[in-house]
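protien #1 (seq + structre)
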Amino acid sequence: MNTLWRPRVLGAWQVPATGPVILAVNHAHYIDGPMLMGTSPRPVHFLIKKEAFVGPLDPFLIGIGQLKVDRSSPDRTAVTNALGVLESGGVLGIFPEGTRGDGDFTSIRAGLAYFAVRSGAPIVPVAVLRSSERGGRLIPALPPLRSRCDVVFGEPFEPGDGSGRRTRKALDEATVRIQERLTAHLGNAKRLSGR
């Protein structure tokens, strides 16, 4: 990451040094996941669509601990593997919006709330912010080479209501709380980074 772009990391001290944690990351560009993996203070295991595990990327992604997920139907194996990362005290990376978009956390899926409430792991919001400049791109879907990318970690929080309930209503309420916290973090990250 340091060779291709100029990442600036803010708030990495907010990531708990030990124990399970979920990094909830906005997702607007292809490099958001790799950028976080390259700048996180702890190794991150992402849920990644199975279509990415092709050719030489398949053994590479598996070798660095990434988790394959089939998005066409409920993938119990992926859920079990993700919970296993948290049960072993690891770091799970999730794009709460499920796929690339505007990266503004406006559409959050319930999976993040499920993993957090089920495991008891705190969520650390992460904003990956890039330059809006268009020139200098070798690949249109990537930021210009040597442009600055900011990775801003926020304060850990627990989205549950403290009851330990995992009902649909409890998860829906947790999802609302998560969206509020992630949206607030994104605004604060933009202020901190001057974006």
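ok now protien #2
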Amino acid sequence: MASVSLPMYGVSHQQVEPFWQALRGRLLQLGITDVPQALSWPQDLLRHWQDPDLLLSQTCGYPLVTSLPQVQLVGTYHYRVEGCSGANYSSWLVVREEEPGERLEDFRERVVAYNSQDSQSGYNSLRALIAPLAQQGRFFRQAIASGAHYHSLAMIRSGQADIAAIDCISFALLKRAQPQAVSGLKIIGRTAAVPGLPLITSAETSPQRLAILRAAASAMVNDATSESLLIGDFSLVPRSAYQVISELEQQAAKAGVTAL
């Protein structure tokens, strides 16, 4: 059975399953019959994305350019969220509401939380921003891996961390579904915009099946289940457009910054 997961957005599994059921119906109608009834929720995402049986998943741009040369791009959803422009998205710099600081520069020698080191939105994008401000390769006093954007926000609210870069789509989804998760917080800036999280399929997926995946994913823009995920459009973004993510990493490294 082909492997399918949509692990990147949606505050809960229940939020994503109706979208998958509608997408699954379209895939069946268009002739792909070996589609699972339910989504999988893999713990090891990189291994999942590298699975030769992968029919469909959504990855982040950073692992796409660093670890997934073999996958094929299905396309990229556009989101109806402030901070997005077409297929591009950015991250908000989030701090506590009572913080006197209003700029990234004001958070020198403070504690940053990030979801994971292979995240464009929570790590690579912020590393590029601090690079011009860093001294001897450092800007923050400490960087703590939280495991997820909503964990980073909780750490800021509790005082365990002072700042984090949170992608604008995750922030909007959380704000709508769990407003308490973003209460007491404010935005002081944003990261550079880059192409959004692409849908991918295995290198083994045939051109015919790839065309069906694209048609079905595109048709979902007009489906009612897309509303809860804030999906507004769909386009084919070439792999070359994602190279800007590698360039951000390289620019930071030239400035002597290789870590948050």
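Residues 86 and 156 are 30 Å apart (CA to CA).
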